[in-house]
Structure prediction request, 1072 residues.
Amino acid sequence: MSLLSPAAHNTLSEFQGCHSWENRARLLLKYGQQLASITHEQRQQDNLIRGCESPVWCLLQQQDGTLQIQLDTDARLLKGLLAVLLVRIQGITAADLAQVDINDWFTQLGLSRQLSPSRSNGLNAVIQHIRTQLA
Amino acid sequence: MSLLSPAAHNTLSEFQGCHSWENRARLLLKYGQQLASITHEQRQQDNLIRGCESPVWCLLQQQDGTLQIQLDTDARLLKGLLAVLLVRIQGITAADLAQVDINDWFTQLGLSRQLSPSRSNGLNAVIQHIRTQLA
Amino acid sequence: MQQLHSPWRHLFPGIQQLNDTGQVWLDSAATAQKPQAMLDALLQYYQQGVANVHRAQHQPGERATLAFEQARQLAAHWLNASNSDCIIFTKGTTEGLNLLSHALAGQFNAGDEILLSGYEHHANLLPWQQLAQRQQLQLKILPVDNNGTIEIAHAADYFNSRTRLLAISPLSNVLGQLHSLQPLLAQARAQSIITVVDGAQYAVHRQPDVQQLDCDFFVCSSHKLYGPDGVGLLYAHPEQHALMQPWQWGGEMIEHCTYQSAQARALPLGFEAGTPGIANAIAFAATLEWLLSLDKAAVQAHEQALFTQLKQGLTERNMQIVGQPDTALISFNAPEVHPADLAHLLSEQGIAVRGGQHCAMPLFQQLGLPGAVRVSLALYNDSSDLQAFFQALDKALEILT
Amino acid sequence: MQQLHSPWRHLFPGIQQLNDTGQVWLDSAATAQKPQAMLDALLQYYQQGVANVHRAQHQPGERATLAFEQARQLAAHWLNASNSDCIIFTKGTTEGLNLLSHALAGQFNAGDEILLSGYEHHANLLPWQQLAQRQQLQLKILPVDNNGTIEIAHAADYFNSRTRLLAISPLSNVLGQLHSLQPLLAQARAQSIITVVDGAQYAVHRQPDVQQLDCDFFVCSSHKLYGPDGVGLLYAHPEQHALMQPWQWGGEMIEHCTYQSAQARALPLGFEAGTPGIANAIAFAATLEWLLSLDKAAVQAHEQALFTQLKQGLTERNMQIVGQPDTALISFNAPEVHPADLAHLLSEQGIAVRGGQHCAMPLFQQLGLPGAVRVSLALYNDSSDLQAFFQALDKALEILT
Ligand SMILES: Cc1ncc(COP(=O)(O)O)c(C=O)c1O
Ligand SMILES: Cc1ncc(COP(=O)(O)O)c(C=O)c1O
Prediction:
């Protein structure tokens, strides 16, 4: 298990403070808004993740052994979900990533339903894409 | 409705006199035994009826407007069934054949189950073959 | 909003149980809930002891075969097919169309054309696209304009001497606009163009009459028609059986075989390789029988009244409706809102509607939309379902805008 | 005859009801009766409210998708597949083999060879025969001798440099002889020959272990395995997915498409075009779960004890047994009696056995037999079933000889 960063702790307490779906939704929208966009020039087939109903773009680098990931999509709540995913895995090492229990992370945030095996929201496809890219 | 011939009346009373499956089976075997065989030379692809699990051969002629049908198979009970079929339709005209309710005939004989839609015993395929040949 | 109550709703245990868990089912175009009559038939078939069909001559086998063939007859009757030999049991619409794209392969020469509408579901596009690629055919598309409209009245203008096949749906799962295809199908027949009708959505809202439509082939799925999933129908016009070459091969679908050769049976058995879904066919027939027992006009009036309420509510809220829907379903977007976001927040509130491209990606490319939210109706819906939907919609829009 | 009682018999309502109508079910190799656990799962799925899978993100959709994917996982676990992505839900064994005969078409050049055993069911013969005809391949047959024996130990002698695929069943539905295929499959792998195992009968009597077998592909049918009809499994070895090209096309099996092109998804979804048989997959998984809960050794011992009684009774009566059966079923003839006659009179007495060629016509041509009567056993049979059979057999022979 890789440990939670201070930012992740912060996110966790923010989400755990939400006691309704509405608050969670508003918080997700806020997270999504704060996430940097991937420009139209960078939105190329190579950077497109297959298997999401709403297209998701991904730029992935390893700097000094740690992951630098950019994710973007046009759907705002999905973008929020991508943002909270990044909170958990941004800047860690590829080795640590293999240890992260993403399900557990989303469950703790009260967002476990978003990780269903259904292909529709694509969050699973994003996680799988990142893992495959690093494998 | 074409009327029953004297031979058919006779068959009917014979079968209606059977009060057990065993007697019916023995009677069918007897009918089968009395049916003329189709020789091996005449057992050709052209004369083979498609769609029966046990191969059935058929020679069909119209003489003076009436049907002359020969049927044969190696399975003895099926051969008996073919024989009682012929009792009903041998020698009638093609036009009369169209009127014959074969289901009713077998039902009266207590053999209705042999006319099931299943392809396994082939009696249906035989009837269909004859009708198609004449159509 | 006037209160509309479905008199058939209580016959659907799934609707009751979904309601009990706070779910409102407005995704019937994806799959429909099942009436008790279907469940009873399914259970009864399995409980009384099963047997394979068309194989053994023992009594359970005869009984199963009889029930299976009666199911075929009922399906033929329901479609008004002239003959039950015209009915092939499939896994569903998709399999039916894939079957045709292989069974009819011998009818094309390189350069021949296949004509489709621009709003077809992937199931009625991709099998033809693949056939075209395999045999160097041209796939022609009846264009949908930016409003989602297609000029069915002028569709025959796209026929030419190379056109060999027309595949089209009378009711799109996205646009919800009912097209009367008869004139077009008649023009196709006059030019010896093979016609395939994708009735997956249409069959749910209008009882098909294949003789009146006069198409060559018609396909639909049981699961959208209140029946079990995993079974569907393919109707083949009696005069077109000769066009079809067998596709899947196996057990009892042949007349004779050796190690090196085989002759297939005629329709329908020659196209039903392997043990079929016997229970499903029988339970589907029970569903059709139940449907036949309903007052068709009352069902249609109820669905139409619900549709009007749906359309009105969306219009009042200035939603952007896709196309000119008039039947059973509406796809829409809220201005400046991504459909995935809207679908997400509706689902948070227990409203089961579908967001996305609805297996019609090329249509959405054509419309320049990332997708849409679709509300689809069935005979068991009440206006209370719509009220719940509108309430949730208002709430979602409050959050999103 | 020692009395053998199946401790599982009372869990099968179909067996009870058949018994109540005077029917003795000894045709389980054709299709098996269903345990209550299967019926409960099926009913529960439909009653709680259905949804399509892998499409919408509403809660009923998530729940159905989860249940469907859990069914896949359970099937993977049951087959000991390394990964549930290796499991494709099919309509049954026949569809699985037809799928492979198309999906693997790109692996062959004209003149390549496909090797089959001489006892294969039509389902594991005809799809390959048709592939061979389409692509000018050679179909080679491992010969069955007049006694119905095949020298599995020397089967690899039939491999040559052109052999590309071996398709074989460990347990024939006619011969009832269990073959250990592992050595042969290992030799095939060493020579890069693709291996396809038809497990339709085998899977019923031995829980398959695809990793131990180390085959490339394995197929079986739910309905023979006490599950619902209309569903089956295709296992594809994780390293062989790349060999497969998509076959059927439709709704959600693609990643992206335009009017003129499409990219399919990877396994398994890319091979499950259209709405799948969701209820059936879930009820099949419940059946497998129930099977896993049984004492495997006890089941096998019970079946084997029944088998011994069956073989003994037939031998005592000088019946002509086809081949060297050792597992689950025996095909036989009475001297000088046509199998159709015997089957007919057994069925008159309520004994459900199958007479005929059992979808293995070429095998019967090879054996020089018009057919055979087959008695097949399942875990719910008692020795009372065999006693009823023997009594009926004696009576039938009395009439026929
Ligand atoms: C118009 C149309 N065609 C075809 C299909 C495919 O049906 P199925 O998934 O039952 O094969 C659908 C279902 O979504 C549809 O709406
Ligand atoms: C050995 C074997 N293979 C294939 C099949 C075909 O199975 P299904 O009819 O379920 O597709 C059978 C069933 O009879 C079989 O016994």
Q: What stands out?
A: The interface with chain B takes residues 338, 340-341, 344-345, 348-349, 355-357, 370-371, 395, 399-400 of chain D (CB under 8 Å). The mean pLDDT of chain D is 97. The longest strand of chain D covers residues 163-168. Residues C 251, 274-275; D 92-94, 121, 123-124, 169, 173, 198, 200-201, 221, 223, 359 surround pyridoxal-5'-phosphate (ligand 2) (CB under 6 Å).
